[in-house]
Protein 1
Amino acid sequence: MTEVVHSSIDGGILTLTLDSPTNRNALSSALVEQLLAGLRHARDNSEARAVVLTHAGGTFCAGADLSEALARGASVEEASAQGTGAMLDVIRTILELPKPVIAKIDGHVRAGGFGLVGAADIALAGPACTFALTESRLGLSPSVISLVLLPKMTARAVGRYFLSGETFDAPTAVSTGLITESFATAEGLDSGVDTIVAGLRRASPQGLAASKALTTAVLLAEFEEHAQQRADESAALFASDEARQGMTAFLGKTRPPWDLTADPT
């Protein structure tokens, strides 16, 4: 199997790098399998104090890789169900991990990529970052990823960006609560991660685990209570005629019938 998630450890910090730029680091079966394996290795490795989750290429993560399942002959509904299950597994694993997870992002974040960012304990963003929740334009909604976005983003922010699908930058992401801190340069991002990591290296493993448990207890409880409901909602939307039209338009790079924007002149 091709390695699409690289793992390395240095000074107690285990770095997991998503490296599948040809599909914009979408959550293919291989990427999910290797990411989960990396997170579990971090959990069981006594040398690992924390995890830095980062990426190669210009996109941090573009969400589920539906094309992979469709190419295997799965229906859109089956492909979406597989993607939903994978997303839930990854979010749950990050939340339950007794070690801090720092998302280091300097690229585009779309769809399920928001789930990774929202699940992380600390999220740092560089100047190349853009964010957009475009599900509503496809006849869908950010159902599953809302489990970690609604508790962290402000009500006004989700009321705007869940609905409008607008693209926003890293400083705006900070103001919404999605991102912890943004940096104007890639060098600044590196320095910001180094600052966080230096603090984590001074903390005891027990202290980190107990402190993280405090910060994630309510989030985990709500996640377990509502995960199946959100998954069912997602499945129902993907099975709808409107979503089929939206996905067809998206894949064909055309406008769906409900798009009321004026034709360019």
Note: The first helix runs from residue 29 to 44.
Protein 2
Amino acid sequence: MARKSMRAEIVEAALEQFHIRGYNAAGVKDITDAAGTPKGSFYNHFDSKESLAVVALEHYGAGLRMADLADDRVEPLTRLRRHFEFLRDETVRHGFTRGCLFGNFGAEIADRSDVIRTAVRQGFRQWTALIAGTLAEARQAGSVRPDLDPEATARFLLSAWEGTLVTARADRSAGAFDSFFTIAFDTLLARDGDRAGA
């Protein structure tokens, strides 16, 4: 198996360090030490830690398995639920110590960096668009109520998910995930006759 390029190793190390330490606390030396590369080599690949953060966000987005949301071989609400279940399982696997990097950077650094704010916004927009597309398919298939607004609902689901991650991390418990799935799938996305308690 071929060894990863130095640039790829730096990006992977940055993703790990940004998740563990946050943007501000993860220094270039921390990242290059974690990558096993000389600090001087960093600037052969990136202009700044900020430019690396943008690439790390893109890498993070690819790891969210967003393409699964567009897999039309799977029923729309099933694939949407599986998407959030995958994200939940990743959070539990890491012991509730990592949130969403888009959300983390949005809270920590976006007010002080237009470059990172733009990357976070683009990540959320892409994610929202894929969820909205899935919801539009579900509406067309009659799986959700016909007046459901896919775009507004997708934005709401992502906002609810980000809040759920914060609560799960604070509690070190999956209880917040249970509430998210119940409200999202058994109430918000249920057809009128299928809603819990209806």
Note: DSSP finds nine helices and no strands in the chain.
Protein 3
Amino acid sequence: MPVLREAARAHRFLAELKGRAGTIPNQGILIDTLSLQEAKASSEIENIVTTQDELFQTSLYPDRPASPAAKEVALYADALKCGFDNLHRTQGLLTNNSITQMFRILKRTTEGFRATPGTALKNETSGELVYIPPQSADDIIRHMTALERFINEPDGQELDPLIRMAVIHHQFESIHPFSDGNGRIGRIINVLYLARQRLLDTPILYLSRYVTAHKADYYRLLQSVRDTGQWEPWLLYMLRAVGSTAVGTLELIEGIRVLMTDYKSCLRTQHPRLYSQDLLNNLFRHPYTRIEFVQNELSVTRQTAARYLDQLAAGGLLVKQQAGRNNYYVNGPLVQLLTKGEGARPI
């Protein structure tokens, strides 16, 4: 009964989130801005830490040198987008080929599933051996094949899809199929599974901030299922993560919607010659934007794009910054909203 009650609660908030997300005119705004926040939070669980400014700078100038942490976060966002694109290309199937492709993007490698034994999971603090996952390549392939089948079984199975998501995540982390990055890939699989089940239209529910806030419980409950076979505490943890994160994401999306409405009004009244929906979308798809982004997305000349951005900066809608010989422009209120929007609230 506790699991059923928590599942019903989580479904209610998810349904509200799915509906509210549809009020944002361009879903790319949510995918791009929220995926970067998820990339940052998910990487922090693995002690890969970067700042908001460095995160946005890296997305602004991907070819420039950046810290290893910022590069890893950017690669996580790329892997997530690849997985979502593959979901469309495969008519909703979440395959091992797609999972492996995400891993290769994340780790910039040509490797696949682990092929040599020796992997063991240890306590970060004490160094104590905690868990030994499957060792042989054949066992890993066999388990991942079974998991792929479980993920893609037709709808209408007995298990609630949120329960299935929790089971999938536990099984993936226990197989531990890759040499590195299993936690991050596992968290991407969570949101892709929700999209596959049509509980969300776009991958905008990210559990990593909840996991970061309750990290000790996450690892304790993962291991507890392996040690005792008691699933209920783990299921409750994951269901609460979904519900809590949905509440926080609802608040964040509503904040973005209100802010977009304010910017739209300001553009129409103060800069009527500049206003277009495409320009508004650009300012919210890229919290840090640059001339080239506007030039390409609005199909205008570089001179026109520069004039647009300079006028908006002069009017206080953007803050003009300089990086070397180039300028970039910051949507300050949006950055503050994303930084404040932790994506998980107690419920």
Note: The chain has 15 helices and five strands.
Protein 4
Amino acid sequence: MAEISLRSRDARRVLVYAPMGQPLGGHELASHLWVAERLAGLLGMSYGGIGRDTERHPRGERYVVPYRTLNLREARRFGIESPADLFGGVVTEDFVGTKLITHGLVRPGAVAPSGWSDLFASKIIDVVLPGFSVFTPSDLRTATGQLLREGGVRIKSPRDMGGQGQRVVKTVDELEPLIESMGPGPWLEDGLVVERNLDEVATISVGQVVLDGIQATYVGRQRLIRNHDGDMVYGGTDLLCTRGDFEALRQLPLTGDQRLAVEQARCYHDEAIRCFPGTYASRANYDVAQGKDANGRWYSGVLEQSWRIGGASAAEVEAVGSLLAHPSRRAVWASTRESYDRREPVPDDAKIVFHGDDPKAGFLVKYVRTKRSAGT
């Protein structure tokens, strides 16, 4: 069957992947290029592979899939002026595309980057975990001390992905080696996120993609698997995806936990667009953590936004393709899977995204599947 696309093919516009200075190679690059080529087919564009980050293009000549969220200067260089020009997002200040905006400052007037929004922090305080964003050693000590009164504290680097750059502390004294390694501050280029640590955590993904002619919104749950070192790492996501916006998603028969996560992600999404004028995204994903703290209290809160290509993007584009191929369908299930086990069979109906030996991760297979409903 011929590939379904959103519009007739226009070879004058080329879709390119922009690595944004990241080293080329490995399973992540292969996965991103797989998604980019699939998107080119859906959008009816020519596929140009990897594009140079420093190459300037007139508006409308390129559709860009960048490795990370872009700032306005980078977007202009690529000729990007709206969500119709990229798969990802554009922000006015670099920190807006990181975990830092998820939490407010430890006190009014605390050190923060130019463009910081106290209003955003106040608008989303009820849909995120208890926490702070800090930019000086003294504010880090204060924030950690406050949160430690009710249990362990997770300290996160705002730019790292996949759970990297995180540590859990149980006493203020455990901070000192971290502070020493970062220097005296202020850390306006980086900063740190300090938030309530949860155990027995389930991570729900809520997101939206906007492509030419269709908007699709989803909710799903992430899986954890063991890698070759025995560590628990990301192992894929199961998505329930529907045509339309967050309101359309709310009309599906969701569980109570899913419904709460959707409402929290929707609030975060809407307020971010309002409080940071000039921010836009054609791909938006929000990770919502649900679990218990050290005292057994249950929490649900948005951890971060992802306005860039991500681990669930293969499932996102396959879901859109399935909805296009079957216009009468209200929703579709799509899932990504990752496995480090050579013996694990790959389903016959799966599309292989990566299969081989990664220089860092070792053997790894990634694939994506779609189905009409949970039972088919």
Note: Helices lie at 26-43, 72-78, 118-124, 137-148, 176-182, 246-250, 256-275, 313-325.
